[in-house]
Write a structure and sequence with these properties.
Blueprint: H1 15-25, E1 30-33, H2 54-63, E2 68-72, E3 79-84, H3 90-101, E4 108-111, E5 117-122, E6 131-135, E7 138-141, E8 146-149, E9 161-162, E10 174-175, H4 195-204, E11 206-207, H5 211-224, H6 229-243, E12 244-245, H7 250-269
Parallel strand pairs: 5-10, 11-12
Antiparallel strand pairs: 1-2, 2-8, 3-5, 3-7, 4-5, 4-9, 6-7
Length: about 280
């Protein structure tokens, strides 16, 4: 792709539209998100299952010329992203994890406008659930997730940028470290969270930017433990209205649970899951 995706995210006359088209040419699913923010500007469930046509992406950025661009993580794009937020202890957590498990392999890496780091890894297959709080300040964006990508502009006014020598044209996409999912992954909810984690998550709720990923994670947790999908929808409607800041639309909650239920059903049918 040559220099279609600039290292520092500041390509004159190009911006997020050209970046979105370049990501699509790599097979990475993209969506537009609000300028200087993270809120999707389109209903994006379908783009977890299909790539936008280049003409669709072009229309998005004609309609919202100042929009940021986000990459949809998961099996479709072949990506999982480790999201490290130093402001919440992510740098310290990552250093500790690297001492325990060894340094992260060289891979595609972005520096966020907020000073965080996004490490892009190859999706290992199956289903990789989003995980909020993999460690303090570290989240995992997998199936049903997304990350804001260069050359988007953060609320601080600073751009997202590819780390030097770690852009998509410069670094290999490394395999996902197995320790990220506690030594492996399965076709349903990723294991590893304690009961205390789920209790705290349901009590605490989440802010804008983490709502979809957290909703997907909770849906997977409920379905993995045998809760009927219709019951899960009603429970998550209630949780969303009380604990999400601000709440998602009811339709978004329904679409999320339906998507996770389909994925969960495929995993069970393939024999990839384990007994409860």
């Amino acid at each position: 792709m040559g220099n279609a995706i600039g290292r520092d995210g500041k390509r004159a006359g190009a911006g997020c539209r050209d970046a979105a088209l370049a990501y699509l040419s790599r097979g990475w699913s993209v969506i537009p998100v609000e300028a200087h923010g993270k809120r999707p500007l389109v209903a994006w469930l379908e783009f977890q299952h299909r790539l936008a046509a280049p003409e669709e992406a072009d229309r998005w950025f004609q309609r919202w010329p100042d929009a940021n661009v986000a990459i949809v993580t998961g099996a479709l794009s072949g990506l999982v992203v480790l999201d490290v937020d130093p402001g919440h202890g992510g740098g310290t957590s990552l250093a500790r994890l690297e001492v325990e498990h060894g340094p992260l392999a060289r891979t595609v890496e972005a520096v966020t406008g907020g000073g965080g780091r996004h490490f892009y890894f190859a999706h290992p297959g199956g289903t990789v659930a989003n995980r909020i709080g993999l460690a303090p300040g570290i989240d995992l964006r997998g199936d049903g997730g997304c990350v804001v990508a260069p050359p988007s502009v953060h609320a601080s006014g600073r751009p997202y940028a590819w780390a030097p020598a770690h852009g998509p044209d410069e670094a290999p996409l490394a395999p996902m470290p197995r320790w990220i999912l506690g030594g492996g992954h399965d076709s349903g909810e990723a294991r590893g969270h304690t009961l205390a984690h789920w209790r705290e998550l349901t009590r605490r709720g989440v802010d804008e930017g983490a709502r979809n990923a957290t909703l997907a994670s909770l849906a997977g947790h409920l379905l993995w433990h045998g809760v009927d999908p219709d019951v899960a929808v009603e429970l998550l409607h209630a949780w969303n209205r009380v604990r999400c800041r601000p709440p998602l639309d009811d339709e978004e909650v329904l679409r999320c649970v339906e998507s996770i239920a389909r994925t969960h059903g495929r995993g069970r049918g393939a024999g990839g899951g384990e007994g409860r």
